[in-house]
Design a protein that fits this description.
By secondary structure, this protein is an alpha/beta fold. It contains twelve helices and 14 strands. It has an eight-stranded mixed beta sheet with strand order 13-12-11-7-10-9-8-14. A hairpin with a 5-residue loop joins strand 12 and strand 13. The N and C termini lie far apart (about 40 Å). The structure holds nicotinamide-adenine-dinucleotide.
Length: about 350
């Protein structure tokens, strides 16, 4: 299947490697900054004469190359416009997280995907972590008994140099703060674990150590689900010196699990009333990851290939993209209004947060 990549920055190498490993025919790469597509080829150690063409205009690339699948790895604020263009041109599309910056744009993408019938997936790839998959199987098998609560903690480090590197980072228009950028995987896992139906969200965010950004650098939320369970999400880029952990705790009447590591990639506690064969192995499951992005892109691209082939929905679809986005936007709205926010949320955008903390000065 012919594939093309739009956006050749930091995360793009995961897309390129995942596309090649899953035997897509990589036809072309595009970045508006001249030279970045070529630099990505060099980073991936692909020779310039390997037959992968480079472009600076994605519309031109799509017209010339006619790929069947694209992935979009531009800054977040551009995802929606480019995704709509691709979907409306009948191209299967993988969108980096967050799928959009507003619920109205997410809804436009969903409507376009439903209308065109192409496969659209969102890179919330932590769902594919082996540890997360093990917990998911136990949950679906009812091993937790009555689920009580779940807590996700993203304790990472993002310093000034990270934000200085690209103008879009830490802006409401194109990024959002640590919750939208770094914690959306955690929001996705929390919602996926406790059920998508949320009654209300109590959110508090702040900017403590990054006064030169527009957005929050820490945030926390209590999430009441309609089924009575309670979720807690806490995220921060303020951890001194280096990333500490992304952990998930899930508690039920008959079991408890803690996933740890830098991005929920290890099992740290695995304890159930009904001891089963395989529990010993699962208890020590470690999936070393080179960075916080993990190996999930590889599996997500594989899933998309199979979804297209088998005419089935992808494992992480546009609705999953929207539910994660909705939770983060509800936290933002709660911070803005000082009130709990009832879901479903019909409309809210990161841009509704403009002026909350200040302006970007770097
Ligand atoms: N899934 C994950 O774990 C994960 C990890 C990191 C980043 N991301 C997401 O990936 C996206 C990109 O992040 P990044 O760190 O690679 O950013 P980046 O700034 O390094 O890369 C973005 C690239 O897109 C290019 N670009 C912008 N507009 C374009 C256009 N119209 N056509 C073609 N190229 C265009 C930019 O020139 C830049 O090279 C963000 O949305 C981010 O949230 C996801």
């Amino acid at each position: 299947m012919k594939y093309a990549l739009i956006g050749c920055g930091r995360i793009a190498i995961n897309h390129l490697k995942a596309a090649r490993a899953n035997r897509f025919e990589v036809a072309a790469l595009c970045d508006i900054v001249p030279g970045k597509a070529e630099a990505l080829l060099a980073r991936a150690e692909i020779p310039a004469d390997a037959g992968i063409r480079t472009y600076t205009d994605y519309r031109q690339m799509l017209a010339v190359e006619q790929p069947e699948l694209v992935s979009i790895a531009t800054e977040s604020g551009k995802h929606a416009k480019i995704a709509l263009y691709c979907i409306e041109h009948g191209i299967h599309t993988i969108i980096e997280k967050p799928m959009a910056m507003s619920l109205s744009d997410a809804d436009r993408i969903i409507a376009a995907a439903e209308k065109s019938g192409v496969t659209v997936s969102v890179c919330q790839q932590c769902r594919f972590n082996q540890a997360v998959q093990a917990m998911r199987r136990a949950l679906e098998a009812g091993r937790f008994g009555t689920v009580s609560h779940c807590s996700v903690n993203v304790y990472w480090n993002r310093e000034r140099s990270y934000y200085e590197h690209d103008a879009w980072r830490g802006t409401w228009k194109d990024d959002g703060g640590c919750l939208m950028n770094q914690c959306i995987h955690g929001a996705d896992l929390l919602r996926w674990t406790l059920g998508t139906d949320i009654a209300r969200v109590y959110g508090v965010t702040a900017n403590h150590l990054h006064g030169y950004l527009e957005t929050e650098d820490m945030g926390t939320a209590i999430v009441e689900f309609k089924n009575g369970t309670v979720g807690v999400l806490e995220g921060s880029g303020n951890v001194f010196r280096e990333n500490l952990e992304e952990t998930l705790y899930l508690f039920g009447s008959d079991g408890k699990v803690k996933l740890g590591g830098n991005s929920c990639n290890n099992v740290e506690v695995w304890d159930f009333a009904d001891v089963q064969e395989g529990d010993e192995t699962t208890r020590t499951l470690r999936e070393p990851a080179p960075n916080v992005y993990g190996h999930g892109h590889m599996r997500l691209f594989q899933d998309v290939a199979e979804a297209i082939e088998q005419h089935r929905p992808p494992y992480v679809d546009v609705y999953a993209g929207r539910t994660a986005l909705e939770l983060i936007l509800a936290i933002y709205k709660s911070q803005k209004t000082g009130q709990p926010v009832d879901l479903p949320l019909d409309s809210f955008s990161t841009e509704d947060m403009e002026g909350i903390f200040g302006v970007k000065t770097i």
